[in-house]
Amino acid sequence: MQANTHSLVASMDNSILIAVLMGGPGSEREVSLNSGRAVLSALRGEGLNAVGVDVIDTQPELPEGTGLVFNVIHGTFGEDGVLQDYLESIGIPYTGAGPESSRVAFDKIASKSLFRQSGIPTPEFEVIDVHGGSEFPRMSYPYVIKPPREGSSVGVHIVTNQEERKVALADAAQFGSEVLIERFVEGKELTVGIVGNETFPVVHIVPKAGFYDMSNKYPWMGSEGSTEYFCPADLDAKTTKIVQEVAMRAHQVLGIEVYSRVDILLDSLSNPYILEANTIPGMTASSLLPKGAAEATPSYEFGALCRRIVELSLSLRA
């Protein structure tokens, strides 16, 4: 790591108590615990004063003297702006996106609407209210059904016929009345990590079967899925630049602070389509944001990446 690029590292105050919040009450609790434990270990490995906090409900008890919260609660409560609002109300600085950018990025309907207004390519979509009797999408098959306010591909289904539609709608409806219907784009699944003003190399995600769902993302949770990752992605220089630039535009249009990971589909004509921006992406040493960081120039080891997120967040909010 080059000192002139990451100059704040040397000035970090190691006396600051960092509370790593993990777990949470949402559907991604186990994934968050895994991320949280990895971040905690990495921060301690960097010589920082960090303690883990397993959040069970929406009233986390912070250790006395907490100077910064490192938020690793994926999905509901941690990623939707609620925790950010709470921390601001008690005057505790925290890592990552603020309340408003978190809310907009977490809500796929709101974020895709903003992408559309801003001229950022995103798959065609519609919204139906399954509890209000509007059960039939106007879109023709194939399409993707997903709950608009969940992460880690929770409740996501690729639908090609009527029977699949029924199953998918019933599953997605467990998470709320509104369901997002999105045009299926066949192509390469890509993701781009962003920290500060740095755009990391593109990661190409290749599930062994199906799409990048919970099973393929987290085989350590006991599933039979598996995925290969290629970083940097095998793309020509022009396409790589286009993908990175559209990822940064999406990050900026949503107003995301500090860092994110932007998910993209690249069709057979090399047209990129933004799916979403994750404001609390997976944070283990083998997660996608760290994969990109490890291939950056200069590169970040996992501990240095976590430290960089801390320093940027402190400079923004302390």
What does this structure look like?
With 318 residues, the chain is an alpha+beta fold. The protein folds into three domains: 9-96 and 311-317, 3-Layer(aba) Sandwich (Rossmann fold); 105-121 and 186-294, ATP-grasp fold, B domain (D-amino Acid Aminotransferase, Chain A, domain 1, 2-Layer Sandwich); 125-183, Dna Ligase, domain 1 (2-Layer Sandwich), CATH 3.30.1490.20. The protein has helices at residues 29-45, 82-89, 99-106, 108-117, 162-172, 214-217, 237-253, 288-294, 302-317; strands spanning 17-23, 49-55, 66-71, 125-129, 143-146, 157-159, 178-183, 188-195, 198-199, 203-207, 227-230, 259-266, 272-278. The longest helix has 17 residues, at 29-45. The chain starts with 16 loop residues before the first strand and ends with a helix. Mean pLDDT is 90; it is low at 1-10.
